[in-house]
Amino acid sequence: MTKALSPTSVPRYKQLAEIIRGAIEKGMLADNQALLSERELAESYSVSRETVRKALRFLEERGVVYSDHGRGTFVAPSIVRQMSRFIDSFTQDTEQRGGVPGQRILAIETVPASMGIAGLLAIAPGEPVTRVRRVRLIDNVPVGLNDGYYPLPRGIKLERSELEEAQSLYKLLAHKCGFAPAEAVENLQAALADSQDAELLGISQGDPILVCERIALSERREPIEYCLMKYVATYRYTTRVAKHSATN
Amino acid sequence: MTKALSPTSVPRYKQLAEIIRGAIEKGMLADNQALLSERELAESYSVSRETVRKALRFLEERGVVYSDHGRGTFVAPSIVRQMSRFIDSFTQDTEQRGGVPGQRILAIETVPASMGIAGLLAIAPGEPVTRVRRVRLIDNVPVGLNDGYYPLPRGIKLERSELEEAQSLYKLLAHKCGFAPAEAVENLQAALADSQDAELLGISQGDPILVCERIALSERREPIEYCLMKYVATYRYTTRVAKHSATN
DNA sequence: TAGTGGTCTAGACCACTCG
DNA sequence: GAGTGGTCTAGACCACTAG
């Protein structure tokens, strides 16, 4: 069985990974079912075995498949496949969980960076940063409060109307100024809602909330976002933890 | 400059990765400083370039370095290096943050699995599972409450004295019955402490707590742990999020 | 243009699992 | 022992970045 991969600029291993991911998502393969062996896949798609392995490692990192030495490569259980976490997860996470994501923009403004914000964004205190405050909605119900700070290039202004129409702030910033987070660090803890949180989230003062701080970094690892997020107690933050015991 | 890698059974790419990680941890390389190029590293250590690349990808997954196409490979900023998350993180995380981890064992018992627990562990309701309840301490102060369920093999009994002496429950179980989590899924939300939580954690009823549920899976992706963890509000759960936008 | 990382190959051998 | 994934090589070419 020979299948040709398109000769576009997309690397072959990603094309192959998409084919395999597609087969899994369409339900053609059951949880924990074995895939073809690496050598069989290599022959089927006329690529080298190393290229097949690259595709499988790509999918394994994303929680789609897993390999076991001497046994084979298998479809990851759906509980794992659904738990992979992305940057800009709100829109995607919500859709994946079957909800309709929404937002209510509270303010978009340019403010001088406080010492705390400046330190986190590695800029000088007093430098102008763009601050975006929003209420996040799922099925039109408030679930989270976002307060984000962005050190945008000079001359870039964010308009309320743009953000209202955009699918996501990340996509809008990517389009406007090449904003491209490569990774982020997040920090979670529990707290109690103050009166303002409570009002905006439609809960009571003193209700429990999940506080998540995020610093997003560009490809060059320059801080490009600091965002403080407060979620109601019914909101679940999900993540997948790989083994990674430092040396393995 | 030629350096020989030991010919032990440890793969060369892991040996090289450890050398690079060691140099970074010893402070021999600054944040965002460029490493030698892949070709230079290959020659220095007498390995092929693909082996160097494997070492660098290994470190990149762990947040130690990052590569930028056409520019080079660089030391990840320390904020990222400190944020990598592991399974069995409590002991390691605490030590890394400069605290002394501790535990107070509340109970070790064998109980029949409830329907909820049985579903999560993929066993039959009523099957015996080992339940371990502990208070987690940092510098002798309670910070978390763990309630873990383990479907241990028949004939394996966990003794209180064993766990008191062991460095960690995971290490003890690994030694006793080959317990080896390959990955885990975690689920976080905010809640309020009830009277029992409050007493065990040394806080007040109604104080905010961070509730974290974890299901750990073996290499074959069989559930081998369900653990419910409750942390005081000062405890911070940290994690690193890679880009992973599904197709990139 | 020179140097960097990214992709890809064909082949080899090792380590592990299972019947 | 047969089949699987894991490691490793030597070389090639492409894509990107920078001075």
What is the element layout, followed by pairings?
The structure is a homodimer of 248-residue chains.
Chain A: H1 12-25, H2 38-44, H3 49-61, E1 65-68, E2 72-75, H4 78-81, H5 89-96, E3 101-112, H6 115-121, E4 128-138, E5 141-150, H7 160-165, H8 169-177, E6 181-192, H9 195-201, E7 208-218, E8 223-232, E9 237-242
Antiparallel strand pairs in A: 1-2, 3-4, 4-5, 5-8, 6-7, 7-8
Chain A binds a DNA duplex (19 and 19 nucleotides) through residues 9, 11-13, 37-39, 47-51, 53-54, 56, 67-73.
Overall form of chain A: globular
> Per DSSP, what share of the residues of chain A sits in E-state strands of 2 or more residues?
25-35%
Rounded mean pLDDT of chain A is 92
Please bin the fraction of helical residues of chain A.
Answer: 25-40%
If strands are numbered along the chain, what order do they take across the biggest sheet of chain A? 3-4-5-8-7-6
What class would the helix/strand composition of chain A place it in?
alpha+beta
- If helices are DSSP runs of H or I spanning 4 or more residues, what is the number of helices of chain A? 9
Annotation, overall tally of beta strands of chain A: 9
Instruction: Give the terminus-to-terminus CA distance of chain A.
Output: 36 Å
Low-confidence runs of chain A: none
Quaternary structure state of the chains depicted? homodimer
Radius of gyration of chain A: 22 Å
Order of helices and strands of chain A: HHHEEHHEHEEHHEHEEE
